[in-house]
Recover the amino acids of this structure.
């Protein structure tokens, strides 16, 4: 009898926890007090953070293990429309990329305002601030497109060829006509850019603005032009183990170009994707799709999480490529 009673009590307790609709008590509770959509966005951002971390760690490892590496101040020293010529020395190191970063950071601020207006159920405010965010993201992409076109079309850097090298010893350049030493110094740790024959280029190593680039291979004049047309300027080593030897500029580490285009391109793809989703959500918000849900424009908040993540990642990319 006692056994039957105990069994009946257990069944009643089980029935109390089981809901008529087939669910379980507490099954509608939100984990971490957030919605399923926002939780999944956090999962995605966490996994994406690991991907970027892997790329940046690989960059740091290869840079530390390389005896030479291009100096960012030298590589990223030009500005559109030739405006860098108005700066001291004709160069504007990191000015343009600073402007790029400013655009992205400002767009993150406008995204915050869009989320705030969404929490107030202010449709017009959401549309206005999201539009500014889209413009900021598009401006960043435009700047990055110019930077890539300059490095590829003007500086001739690719994922397999890096014309930016760094000297590992001190010396002096040789006169291309006589082969005699000049007053133009070669300083260990200083970056140089190898140009292509027959192309005018007003920037480069100090003193290169008046350097006449040949149109054909003329070794007897001291030039060294390889099969791809790159000029390897000759210099004489002044001190150290190789003192007295004549050497020529060599290509920089291949990994620099591959990692730069790979990592900044991967980040740029995230920005492009974000701009696309921002436009879609902007149109939906303007048409009143989210107003009827009365959930504080949660979709705007979710895309805001993604946009802030893209902004945060750029801070690390900027630090690694442009400052260190």
């Amino acid at each position: 009898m006692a056994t039957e009673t105990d069994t009946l009590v257990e069944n009643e307790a089980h029935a109390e926890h089981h809901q008529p609709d087939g669910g379980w008590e507490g099954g509608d509770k939100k984990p971490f007090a957030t919605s399923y959509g926002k939780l999944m966005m956090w999962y995605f951002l966490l996994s994406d953070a690991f991907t970027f971390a892997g790329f940046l760690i690989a960059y740091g490892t290869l840079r530390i293990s390389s005896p030479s590496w291009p100096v960012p101040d030298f590589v990223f020293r030009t500005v559109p429309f030739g405006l860098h010529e108005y700066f001291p020395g004709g160069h504007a190191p990191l000015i343009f990329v600073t402007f790029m970063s400013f655009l992205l950071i400002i767009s993150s601020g406008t995204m915050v305002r869009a989320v705030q207006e969404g929490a107030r159920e202010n449709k017009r405010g959401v549309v206005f601030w999201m539009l500014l965010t889209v413009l900021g993201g598009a401006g960043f992409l435009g700047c990055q497109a110019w930077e890539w076109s300059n490095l590829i079309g003007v500086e001739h850097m690719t994922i397999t060829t890096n014309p930016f090298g760094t000297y590992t010893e001190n010396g002096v350049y040789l006169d291309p006509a006589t082969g005699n030493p000049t007053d133009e110094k070669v300083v260990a740790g200083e970056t140089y850019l190898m140009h292509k024959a027959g192309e005018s280029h007003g920037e480069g190593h100090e003193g290169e603005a008046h350097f006449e680039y040949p149109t054909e291979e003329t070794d007897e004049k001291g030039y060294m032009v390889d099969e791809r047309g790159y000029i390897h300027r000759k210099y004489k080593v002044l001190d150290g183990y190789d003192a007295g030897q004549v050497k020529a500029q060599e290509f920089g580490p291949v990994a620099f170009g591959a990692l730069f285009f790979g990592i900044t391109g991967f980040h740029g793809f995230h920005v492009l994707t974000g701009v696309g989703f921002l436009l879609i959500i902007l149109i939906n918000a303007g048409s009143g799709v989210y107003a009827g849900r009365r959930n504080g424009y949660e979709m705007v908040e979710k895309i805001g999480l993604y946009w802030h993540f893209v902004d945060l990642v750029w801070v690390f990319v900027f630090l690694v490529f442009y400052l260190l």
Summary: The chain has two domains: 36-160+269-323, 163-251. The helical segments are 2-17, 36-65, 72-75, 95-119, 123-154, 254-286, 298-323.
